[in-house]
């Protein structure tokens, strides 16, 4: 580091930005080799980026009610002998300290310093090349103060508190990485949880969600990214978090309903939201009547469990429609038929709704010769301005499913916007790339507005997370 060394006394204020700590008073001890940080409820775990450790920090002496939940890279486990001669096996993390206009990484051991006046101790390794010590001086650097942890009466909170947030996902893809990256950049503790590795203790007094042999900590919020192939189990896991009183961005009922195309269209119809005429029947004797209900060919035949444009067929003629319907019935597949909106010309509009607002929209066009506009099927996209009616339709559709974040697909028909689908796990790559908007940041801003950090609730305590579906 090229900057001149800072002058430190035996006690100094500093910040730990990687842990979202705006201020902590540290004791400077050149007699100690390593640094130490007060921590409780220390739990190591594996993550895609390597070993991590969770812990709870009480940064203000005498304030047990102020508990910050932190996550940091775990780099070692080390035997440390304290000043009173006691030997302790400690976890070692790497994090940055910030003082004045300088910042640098250090290694810190985690230990219980609850009986100490200083919640942090700075040892020789942390001071090397950065600090000049004046052992008789005190607080040579700018004062920070514990008032950074308290909001002024009637005013905004000056420092955003760290939230513990779980991203439920089995995939290491663009959307998952963006959520982890953006959440951590905003100072939150964001854990990636593989949905299928969760298991549940279901009881009245102390319901739990466990993971790899350990009870998961209390999360302030959960962002479900439930894959279509595991919808039943994934929604069961989300329901368990709801039982615990955790705020789930998308509720279990809304996720399940959005995956069932038939039920989804019934919800849209009940809410009075425009959509293409749709019909469903079980008996093969009803095939011609089914086709007539949607205005005849051309029409769309769609598997009820389809996603990303798979299991969706355009039948140009009545004979072709009868053949496709017969084939689907032969496979004992559940499907519906839908009016083909010819004037849409192979285009649809994806609206990204967060917290009851359309935050981004793009027009998608199918690949040459393909009526499907899904980007996964080779379609292309471009930014688009939507009308107030289209904006209203998208917001009402997301609200009908009780979804905090949703991708709503619209068609532009002669008689107004038609909702094709409501996606409860919309991808971010296409819409962020095409619109240039930081959608992940907007999602975390919504979570911050709705959730306040909370300690573990009393056994059996819960709060409703989502309104019931109509």
TrEMBL record:
Superkingdom of origin organism: Bacteria
Gene3D superfamilies: 3.40.50.20, Acid Proteases, ATP-grasp fold, A domain, ATP-grasp fold, B domain
Protein name: 30S ribosomal protein S6--L-glutamate ligase
The species this protein was found in: Rhodobacter lacus
GO cellular component: ribosome
A GO molecular-function descriptor: ligase activity
PANTHER family with a match to the protein in the record: RIBOSOMAL PROTEIN BS6--L-GLUTAMATE LIGASE, RIBOSOMAL PROTEIN S6 MODIFICATION PROTEIN
Cofactor(s) named in the record: Mg(2+); Mn(2+)
Leading EC class: ligase
Residue stretches making up the ATP-grasp domain: 265-448
Keywords (A to Z) from UniProt: ATP-binding, Ligase, Magnesium, Manganese, Metal-binding, Nucleotide-binding, Protein biosynthesis, Ribonucleoprotein, Ribosomal protein
E.C. numbers: 6.3.2.-
């Amino acid at each position: 580091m090229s900057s001149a060394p800072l002058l430190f006394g035996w006690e100094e204020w500093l910040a730990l930005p990687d842990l979202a700590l705006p201020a902590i008073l540290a004791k400077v001890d050149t007699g100690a080799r390593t640094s130490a940080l007060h921590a409780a409820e220390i739990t190591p775990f594996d993550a895609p980026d390597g070993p991590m450790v969770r812990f709870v920090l009480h940064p203000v002496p005498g304030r047990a009610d102020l508990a910050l939940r932190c996550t940091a890279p775990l780099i070692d486990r080390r035997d440390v002998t304290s000043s009173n001669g006691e030997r302790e096996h400690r976890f070692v993390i790497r994090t940055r300290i910030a003082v004045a206009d300088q910042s640098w990484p250090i290694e810190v051991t985690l230990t219980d310093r609850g009986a100490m006046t200083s919640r942090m101790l700075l040892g020789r390794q942390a001071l090397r090349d950065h600090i000049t010590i004046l052992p008789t001086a005190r607080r040579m650097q700018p004062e920070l103060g514990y008032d950074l942890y308290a909001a002024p009466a009637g005013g905004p909170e000056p420092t955003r508190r760290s939230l513990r947030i779980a991203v439920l996902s089995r995939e290491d893809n663009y959307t998952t990485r963006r959520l982890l990256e953006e959440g951590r950049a905003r100072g939150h503790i964001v854990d990636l949880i593989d949905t299928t590795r969760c298991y549940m203790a279901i009881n009245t007094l102390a319901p739990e969600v466990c993971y790899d042999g350990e009870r998961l900590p209390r999360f302030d919020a959960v962002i479900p990214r439930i894959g279509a192939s595991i919808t039943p189990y994934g929604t069961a896991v989300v329901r368990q978090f709801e039982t615990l009183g955790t705020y789930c961005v998308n509720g279990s009922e809304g996720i399940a309903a959005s995956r069932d195309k038939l039920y989804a269209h019934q919800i849209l119809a009940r809410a009075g939201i425009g959509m293409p005429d749709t019909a469903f029947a079980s008996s093969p004797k009803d095939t011609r009547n089914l086709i007539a209900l949607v205005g005849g060919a051309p029409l769309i035949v769609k598997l009820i469990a389809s996603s990303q444009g798979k299991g969706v067929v355009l039948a140009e003629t009545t004979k072709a429609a009868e053949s496709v319907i017969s084939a689907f019935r032969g496979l004992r597949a559940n499907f519906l038929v839908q009016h083909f909106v010819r004037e849409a010309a192979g285009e649809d509009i994806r609206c990204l709704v967060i917290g009851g607002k359309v935050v981004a929209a793009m027009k998608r066009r199918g690949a040459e010769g393909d009526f499907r506009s899904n980007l996964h099927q080779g379609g292309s996209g471009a930014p688009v301005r939507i009308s107030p009616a289209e904006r209203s339709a998208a917001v009402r559709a997301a609200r009908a499913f009780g979804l905090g974040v949703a991708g709503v697909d619209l068609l532009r028909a002669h008689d107004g916007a038609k909702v094709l689908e409501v996606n409860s796990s919309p991808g971010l790559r296409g819409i962020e790339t095409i619109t240039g908007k930081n959608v992940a940041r907007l999602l975390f801003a919504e979570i911050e507005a709705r959730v306040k950090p909370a300690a573990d609730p009393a056994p059996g305590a819960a709060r409703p997370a989502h309104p019931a579906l109509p």
